[in-house]
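Work through this:
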Amino acid sequence: MENSWRIVSSTRLIQLYGLWLIAALLGTTEVQGATYYVATTGNDSNPGTLAQPFGTFKQAINKLQPGDTLYIRGGTYTEQMNFQDPPKTGIANAWLTIAGYPGEAVTLLRTDPVDNSYGPIKARGNLAYFVFENLILDGTNSSNGTAWNLRDGNHHFILRNLEIKNFKSSGLHIKGSDIHVLNCKIHDNQPPPGIKSRKYGIYFAYGDNVILDGNEIYRNNGGGIHAFPGPIRNAIIRGNRVYDNNSSSESTVPGILVFEDTDYYDGTAIIDGVHLYNNIVYGNGAGGIFVSNGAANVKVWNNTVYGNKGWGVNIQIGLNGMPVNTIVQNNIVFANTSGEIINKGVGSVIDHNVIDDPKFVNATARDFRIQAFSPAMDAGVALDEVRVDIKNVPRPQGVTHDIGAYEGGGSDLKSPNAPRSVSIN
């Protein structure tokens, strides 16, 4: 598979991955690196070709240079991938790509004993310009630990088409900038029996220019997406299905949380410019979408929020302040147990939302497309940033935008690699 970061033109680059990489790549020629292979049937005395793959990650990683690609053949691996000792990193015009071989299932099975602060992939610190794709990270045999921590200087990581499951802590912990998490499944991350603790699908602690797009996040005992405490600036959370999280009575965290805590990092935390749109949030145990405690300029657009315990959309005062300039438009918010939308913020704009029966195709079967006679059809406000729906159907299809995550008449099918245009202002 050709590295998807090879430059064809600046226009194509914008279509695929957005504006955040342009400054780094304009006017450069991307390095065409070597391709290596590793397999459970390989041998480290081999040259690492498709016909004669390496037998261990250690040998393969030692060979990598910026611009290279490592393909992992199908099978289950218990060896930890270690990119820190010695450090391996990509550079702006030569990304490193680590990928499961196309059409084959590659499972990285975390087992004890390993350093409990790391999961199957050890790549913290000032390491950057990585693409990881088509991998399964499985914590079934581990006793504790988050699946993956991006922190300590990590930046410019693409995690695409991963499955992260069965860890005894959170699935993904982000403390870095320019991180993209695309089309991943993150599920069933729970503490060990008898341990009272919240574990999240994605714990987004801080970072700028982070995009969480097209992910399916479910059955984690804490929240689905937890953006806390900051600083977080210019983040996009879109096109995700976040459901059936917070099943534990110990958890009071909603499906998606955006919560600034100025006490957490020396009183300087800032959350500003988080945009949430085209998400479907349902069946979570402590509410749908929650914005609180001084978060500023949060946009909640074209989401479908259904059947959560608690408020559907909760704009709430906190101990350190209240949300400022929150915009809530074009959302379907229905059948949540405490109510649909509550606003205790300052400067909020809340309009063009449907809070009565939206006439879903089949909510029982979790088909949240709208029928032709839905009150959400052609009832929204035009939003320049929301140009497609959750399945990449262009908006509008009618007179103006439909309300909710689906544009009416949209298919419920989507290619997992369908590109989305990205703009962070």
Confidence is low (pLDDT under 50) at residues 1-28, 412-425. The first strand starts at residue 35 and ends at 38. Residues 10-17 form the longest helix (8 residues).
